[in-house]
Automatic annotation (TrEMBL):
Coiled-coil stretches noted in the UniProt entry, renumbered to this chain: none
Molecular-function GO terms, alphabetical: electron transfer activity
Pfam families tied to this protein: Ni_hydr_CYTB
Protein name: Cytochrome b/b6 domain-containing protein
Gene Ontology annotations of biological process type: respiratory electron transport chain
GO CC, any one term: plasma membrane
Length: 233
């Protein structure tokens, strides 16, 4: 019998909420395209004029949850993302480490893809599609982001199934948690992390910046810009 791996409770909550809202946003995005566009094919879905607003609501929920998930992923969960030696390990084709490395790449790719989807969505005007304005650059960018996001989720699931099988996938749905993982300790953990971050030397921080740290910074800046840029349009 295969032992089910343990996943931190906070990871399961953030991953679950983010995934739930994201899947809902993806499905309602397809429905929105089917209702207002359909130039590259349609699905016989009922026409719902309010569907764009519903899609936007799920997109907004995802945008609100995602920054916390990003911070967790790049700090507590950084071992699940690309590592300094990841490209070198790709040379070991077919070996277990090769599959684990591909899994780290797909996890990282999913974070970047979602950032692109959220940013491009926030750059859109909710009146474009109801008015029949289908040729805006940001609308095309958001359509491309939808395709990339679907691919990213598929790869994410396939790679996790490959390296961990059903036990790994099901472990994200297990709500049991260890005593040390109790929510009562979350604030203390966050306070300790924030204190160590503030006490760290900024000069040393910049000297030790890795690709992963740069990527985290780019994603967080992009998410902040997604809120700020529309205010000037």
């Amino acid at each position: 019998m295969t032992t089910q791996p343990y996943q931190p409770l906070l990871l399961r909550i953030l991953h679950g909420l983010n995934g739930l809202f994201l899947i809902a946003a993806i499905l309602t995005a397809l429905w929105t395209y089917d209702t207002y566009d359909g130039r590259w094919g349609r699905i016989p879905l009922p026409s719902v004029r309010e569907i764009e607003g519903i899609h936007g609501t799920f997109g907004l929920y995802t945008l609100l949850i995602f920054p916390a998930f990003v911070l967790y992923s790049f700090h507590r969960g950084h071992k699940r993302l690309i590592q300094p030696d990841s490209f070198a390990k790709l040379a070991q084709v077919g070996k277990p480490i090769w599959w684990y490395t591909l899994n780290r790449f797909t996890n990282t790719f999913a974070l970047v893809a979602l950032t692109f989807a959220l940013f491009s969505g926030k750059m859109m005007d909710e009146q474009w599609l109801p008015k029949g304005e289908l040729n805006h650059g940001w609308y095309y960018a958001h359509l491309i982001a939808w395709v990339i996001m679907v691919m990213a989720i598929a790869l994410h699931l396939l790679m996790n199934a490959k390296v961990g099988g059903a036990p790994l996938l099901l472990s994200m749905l297990n709500w049991q948690f260890r005593d040390k993982d109790s929510p009562t300790f979350w604030f203390a953990h966050f306070s300790n992390w924030w204190l160590s971050f503030r006490q760290g030397s900024k000069s040393n921080w910049f000297r030790s910046m890795s690709t992963l740290m740069v990527l985290e910074l780019v994603i967080l800046i992009s998410l902040a810009a997604a809120w700020i840029v529309p205010l000037f349009n």
